[in-house]
Each structure stands twice: as C-alpha cells, then as structure tokens.
C-alpha cells in the first residue's frame, strides 16, 4: 500500500493497535512460495499472541495483483506427500490451507486490502478475512478446475458459506475471470474503491474496528464464524452475552453515548 514494493517473504509491521501483513513478490503477482508458509504461520501466531493489537490488515505489494496463490510450478510436488498436501495431517509442516485456516480463526478482525487482481489460492486467502476492500479494474480468477486441481475442503467450505453455492459453482467450475463490480455484487468484496482511495478506505475501516470494544468484537467474530459453519454453541453465545452485560466496556459505551463523546474501551 503506502510502502515501496520489495521482493521476498511476507513482512509484518506493528503500528500501535494495528498489524499489517504484506506479501512482497510483486514481480510474480505476490505468489506464495513453500518457504513463506512457516513464516506466515509464525507471523499470524505473533499477531494472535499480542494483546495490544485490535486489527490485522493483509495486503500485497505493487498495484497489479494482490496475490496469485501458491507457486503453481510446485503443485505437483505436493501430490507426492500427503502431509504437505493437506492441512489436517502433520502439524510440523505449514501448508497453504492450514495458514488460511489460521487466518480465518484469528481472534482479531481482519481486513484484506486487495491492491489488485487475485488468483487461485489468493482468492481463498482474501476470503478468510472478515472484510475485503478491492480496487476498480481488478478481477478474480479461480483456475483450479481448468488445470485439473481439486480444491481442499476448507477452501470450498469458505466459498459456500460466504458466497453461496451458486456463486461457488460459478467461480470453481467455470474458472472465468470475474470483474470487481460483479465481485462486489456477489459479496466477495465488502467495498470497491478507486485505487487512489484504497489506503484511506482501509485506514478508516481499521480505525473503526480498532475503536470497538475488543473483547466483544473478538467474541462476536468467533461466534459469527461458528454460526456460518453450522457448528455454533448457543450456550457459549449466551455466556458471552451475559458477560458483556456486566462489563466495564458496556458501562463506558453507555456513558460515552450519554455524554456524546467517543468511548474509550479497554476490553474489561
């Protein structure tokens, strides 16, 4: 976004309550290499463990592509190793789908700033975020079926949960380029802006999310994801609802509303 594009593994920046994770291979459409996976895994774990953080922004370098997914030249190598081909086997090996699952279940709200077009596994990486802001003139291409690749389970689940089965079939089975305006209409994009406005739009959304009460925001994100998957815990939702009724953040929010001032939430 505002930082000059580099070339190499993903970089994590921490600025106050905000974390920014940036893919940095613009010459290769910010594709993800095998060596990037353990680093992404560690970076997401560091974000998860940092109590000061309130929001994560995921973006790419340059102005052509957000991400082209996993390096296609190495895909056939995965088929010879079951532990590397799926995210449900060896926990010692970082996998693309495992990293994307980790992103999906991050406690913080997440924003994907799609600085350009998105392809293949990059489409699922963005879909795992809570919000996606795209730029006009970009497009999505999911070529899996066209190249003979059956997609992994949780990636298909995310597509169906978030976009509906009709849109999932269109994107997976046809594999045709879909322009940004249609991605907005189907719900893949939360917002669509001119490229020059991407940074300001992401900043505004990040500030709004970071200003919310962290405990309630993170608990509600967790339960909304569970509700979407059909495996929610009603008793746990009720417990968190009752916990919020006794919280200092609720008292602060009500007081701030009465005094017509911005609230100062602490997570209590």
How would you portray this structure in words?
The chain has 268 residues and is α/β, with parallel strands linked by helices. It folds into two domains: 8-210, 2-enoyl-CoA Hydratase, Chain A, domain 1, CATH 3.90.226; 214-259, no CATH class. It contains twelve helices and ten strands.
Topology, pairings included?
Elements: E1 8-15, E2 18-24, H1 36-49, E3 55-60, E4 65-67, H2 75-78, H3 82-85, H4 96-104, E5 110-113, E6 117-119, H5 121-127, E7 131-135, E8 139-141, H6 153-163, H7 165-174, E9 178-179, H8 180-186, E10 191-193, H9 198-210, H10 214-229, H11 234-245, H12 248-259
Q: Summary?
A:
With 268 residues, the chain is an alpha/beta fold. The protein has helices spanning 36-49, 75-78, 82-85, 96-104, 121-127, 153-163, 165-174, 180-186, 198-210, 214-229, 234-245, 248-259; strands spanning 8-15, 18-24, 55-60, 65-67, 110-113, 117-119, 131-135, 139-141, 178-179, 191-193.
């Amino acid at each position: 976004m505002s930082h000059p594009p580099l070339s190499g593994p993903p970089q994590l920046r921490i600025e106050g309550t905000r974390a920014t994770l940036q893919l940095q291979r613009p010459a290769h459409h910010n594709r993800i290499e095998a060596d990037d996976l353990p680093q992404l895994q560690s970076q997401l774990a560091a974000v998860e463990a940092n109590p000061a953080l309130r929001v994560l922004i995921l973006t790419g370098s340059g102005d052509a592509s957000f991400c082209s997914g996993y390096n296609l030249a190495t895909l056939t190598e995965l088929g010879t190793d079951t532990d590397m081909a799926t995210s449900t086997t060896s926990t010692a090996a970082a996998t693309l789908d495992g990293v994307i699952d980790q992103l999906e279940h991050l406690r913080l709200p997440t924003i994907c700033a799609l600085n350009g077009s998105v392809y293949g596994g990059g489409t699922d990486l963005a879909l795992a975020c809570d919000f996606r802001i795209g730029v006009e003139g970009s497009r999505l291409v999911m070529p899996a079926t066209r190249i003979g690749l059956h997609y992994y389970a949780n990636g298909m689940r995310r597509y169906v949960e978030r976009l509906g089965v009709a849109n999932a079939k269109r994107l997976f089975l046809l594999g045709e380029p879909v322009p940004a305006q249609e991605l907005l209409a189907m719900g893949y994009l939360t917002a669509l802006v001119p490229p020059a406005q991407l940074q300001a739009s992401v900043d505004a959304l990040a500030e709004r999310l970071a200003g919310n009460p962290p405990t309630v925001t993170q608990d509600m994100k967790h339960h909304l994801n569970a509700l979407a998957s059909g495996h929610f815990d009603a008793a746990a939702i009720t417990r968190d609802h009752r916990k919020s009724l006794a919280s200092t953040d609720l008292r602060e929010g009500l007081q701030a509303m009465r005094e017509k001032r911005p609230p100062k939430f602490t997570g209590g």
